[in-house]
Each structure stands twice: as C-alpha cells, then as structure tokens.
Amino acid sequence: MATQKLSEYELKRLENIRRNTEMISALKIYSKASQLFKPPSAVTKLKSEKKPKTETPNATRFSLRTRGVATDPSNSLFYSNTKSSNPNILDHLPMKEAYKGTHSDCSFIETLKQQSNGTAKMNKTECSFELESMSLDPENISNVVPGRLTQTRFFPSNDFKMIVAGDNSGNIGFWNVGQSEVFLYRPHQTIISGIVVQSHCLSKIYTSCNDGFARMMDVEKEIFDIVYKSSDKARISALSQPKNEANCLYLAEGSGVLTVWDKRIGTCSSLSGLALHRMRINTIDFNPENPHIAVTSSSDGNACTWDFRRIGGMGKGGNFPALRRFSHERALQSAYFSPSGCSLAITSKNNTIVIYSGVNLKDAAFVNDVRSQKLSTFRAIWGWDDSYLFTGSTKRGIGVVSTAQKATVMTLESPLVSAVPHKFDAHSYEVGMLAAGTSGSQVCVWTSC
User: Fold this and answer.
1) Which of 208, 244, 279, 341 could make an S-S bridge to 289, C-beta 3.0–4.6 Å?
2) What sign does the CA torsion over 286, 287, 290, 292 have?
3) What percent of the chain is predicted at pLDDT more than 90?
4) Would you put residue 257 in left (φ > 0), alpha (ψ -120 to 50) or beta?
5) Which secondary-structure segment (H or E) carries 40?
6) pLDDT at residue 320 is higher than 60
7) Whether residue 448 has pLDDT greater than 70
C-alpha cells in the first residue's frame, strides 16, 4: 500500500538503487576496499613476513695501507695517476714489491743501512800493482742480472766489495764479490741506462731508464722513488753526478739535451733543458780535480768540455758555449777524464781511442785497437792512475792500453769468461780490482792484490 503512494519518479529511483547494489555486490568492490584500510598492526605484520633481500650490498672501502696490507703492483687500481704514458708505473715502489730474488733480502738491506750510518771506509788501498799479476778466480764470477747487462758499478767503499749491475729488462742486481747470493730488483720497465751510487750515502742509489724515468733507491725508507719523469717521453741515455755534489743529478735525454735534477727543491733546476748536442749524449763525466768541468760525448761525432758555473743566469734553451770541442767523423761512444784530470780519453764507433793531454788538452794520440773490432759498444775506462786504459776485446778478454806507449800492450784473458766484456768499472779504493760485465749477464772481477 505504501508503495502505491510513491510517485513514478521515486519508483524509478528505487529501482536504480537496487540494480546498482546488485552490480557492486557482484564485483566484490566493498570487500577489496576493506583490505586497503587495515589497522597499523596488520601492516607491521606484513612487513615482518617479507623475505630478506638477496642483492649484494655495496662494499665498504678500507685503506690497505692502514690495514698493513701490501698493494699489488699488477693491479691497476694501485697505480698512481702520473703524467706518464705507462699507467703501470708506481711513483713510490716499495722494495719488497720490486724484489725478484729467491731468498730474503733482509741481510742486504741491513748491510747498506749500517754503511749509511757513517761506518763506511773510503780510503784508497795501495798495493804493488802489476798488470801481469791480475787474475780471475771462479768465485769472482756471477750472473748478477737475468737479461743483457747494460751497466756495472762498484760501491765506493773499502768495507765490502759490492757491485750493482743493470740489464735491458729494467732489473738491477747487487752482488758482494766472492759470495753466492745475488739480490735482484726490478724498479724499471726497460733498459737501465745509468747507475749512480752516492759515495757519501751508500744507502741511496740512483738509476735511470730508457723509458724516461729516473729513480732513487732509498734503503732507509725501503722504497724506489721516482725523482724525474721526462715530460716529452724522451729516453734517458746517461746519468752522472760530481763526487763533491750530493744534491744535483745530471741526466742526458732525447737528442742532446742536458737536464739537472736538484734534490733540494725536489725538481729540475733552472739550468735544465740545455741542448748541448745535435744527437744523443752517450756519457757525462766530471773532472776529478775540478768538478765544475764536465765532458760529454755524443752520437753527433763531438765531445765537448763545459764549465757549468757559466750556466747561471742563462735562460732555458740559451746558447751555452763549450770550452773545447773535439770533432770526429764517427759517433763517439764515451769520453772520460783521467784520475788526475789532466788527460781525456775518447772512443769512437770505429774502435779508435784518442787520448788528449797537455796544456788545454791540445796533444792528441790515436790508438786503433784491432782487437776490439766489430764491438757494438766500444768504451775505454781509466784504471787507478793515468797509466792505463781498459777496453773490451773480441777475444773475450780485456784490452790494456798504455798511455805512455800509445798502444795496446796486453790482453787479460781467462777461459772462465763466457762472452765479450764491454762494461767496465775500476774500484775507487781497491787498486787492481776491475769489474768487467759481458755482453751476456756475467760480471767478472779481476784482482791483483
């Protein structure tokens, strides 16, 4: 009866409501909407039931240095960001990482540390030296480096007969003459072009390499430090230092350029960048009696003497005149002052030795050593006075040149020598002790006393 009293409009509205209710009920909208508005406790429960993440978390970075872990030089992450084109060059290379020996080097390091504390003796030992008495004992032969030998140097000390040698693979080896152990390091990547052992501090050894780097081996810190990097990637062909100069290191690089590295300022001095020759400088040597005077030999066929005191005030690239120029037709392999500083010996690629002496080195004597023919590296070094020069011989011996007779007077030979000697050094304080490095990796030490 109540329904009959409603108007047609109201009846239609009720019908629409009923149909909409049936439609919503069929879609279950209310039940799904209720799930979106559960109380906070239910939400917390759902979070606690989630599975743990399986992703790998970001690694926390720790300093290996503070943890006392040595870095691996073969890992590029530890290479310093230098200007070098080779990213595998460490500015500060620990000795323990450069060490390639088969036994511990602790005894070697301690020996050099003791020598650096002022206990080293540097007095010249005189003896009745005669050429005929020089001999080679089997225990005085060793393969100091694994590659082709390029440098040989005695340590300037009476306390021990230590030799350091370099090869064409960047290795340097240390050998105490007469002992079996060799301590081998690899601080460079390629050919060792120079070695300097400081007489006032035996624990610091400079080395240079053809890749344009020079390092200082500091035994006190047990590290190989880079002290010089060629800015234009030029090869370093020679390395030298005056005996009375502890702060400056002289390097020949590129095509005849002289660079001076100053330890006091930790970089190159204002005297660097002098173009002394047109081609590569092969040797730099200082006059023992006047260390300001130096001589350079070059592949351009010239040897020149210089007074480096005159460089002061000159700008980089300035025209620096030579005191004296000795010109030859062929490339010059070496130029060395005699122990007295009064004579000069120059060797050329045609196996000729020229000995200059007299006032202003004007007197020249030529020695054509036929026993040294066809040697790729022909150099002559002075002995312990101005009497004799020593050169390599194709007979696997050492040619002895008399400055008085202006000729080769004898050859030191031994069946124990395996290849042609071509790198020599005379011990500064042991008269009659001569080191000869062969074209292989052998170092032979001849003795007289």
Assistant:
1) 341
2) negative
3) 55
4) beta
5) helix 40-48
6) yes
7) yes
pLDDT, residue 29, reads: 63
Cβ neighbours of residue 352 closer than 8 Å, sequence gap 6 or more: 366, 367, 368, 369
Which of 3-17, 116-130, 234-248 holds the top average pLDDT? 234-248
Cβ atoms of 136 and 414 within 8 Å: the answer is yes
CA gap 188, 215 in Å, rounded: 8
3-state DSSP call for residue 81?
Answer: coil
Alpha-carbon gap, residue 376 to 346, rounded angstroms: 16
Neighbours of 259 (CB within 10 A): 22
Q: Letter for the amino acid at 15? A: E
**How far is residue 295's CA from residue 101's CA, in Å, rounded to a whole number?**
37
Residue position matching structure tokens 């070059």: 298
Determine the straight-line distance between the first and last CA of the chain, rounded to whole angstroms: 147
Tokens of 71: 């870095």
**Integer Cα distance of 392 and 422 in angstroms:** 5
- How is residue 343 written in tokens? 């004579």
325 and 283 Cβ atoms separated by less than 8 Å = no
C-alpha distances in Å from residue 448, one per residue of 250, 267, 289, 382, 410: 33, 43, 26, 16, 15
Q: Report the alpha-carbon distance of residue 439 to residue 396 in Å, rounded.
A: 10
Which has the minimum average pLDDT: 47-56, 249-258, 315-324? Answer: 47-56
Q: Kindly report the CA angle at 95 between 94 and 96, in degrees rounded to 5?
A: 90
pLDDT exceeds 90 at position 140: yes
Query: Shortest CA distance to 413 belongs to which of 392, 428, 388, 433?
Result: 392
Q: What is the pLDDT of residue 405?
A: 94
For 264: left if phi > 0, alpha if psi spans -120 to 50, otherwise beta; the answer is: alpha
Query: Tokens 């190159």 label which residue?
Result: 268
DSSP 121: -
Rg of the chain's alpha carbons, rounded to an integer? 38
**pTM across the whole model:** 0.77
Q: Report d(CA 428, CA 426) in Å as an integer.
A: 6
d(CA 68, CA 361) in angstroms, rounded, equals 59
Print the SS3 string covering 286-351.
ECCCCCCEEEEEECCCEEEEEEHHHHCCCCCCCCCCCCEEEECCCCEEEEEECCCCCCEEEEECCC
Please report which residue ranges of 176-261 form alpha helices under DSSP H.
none
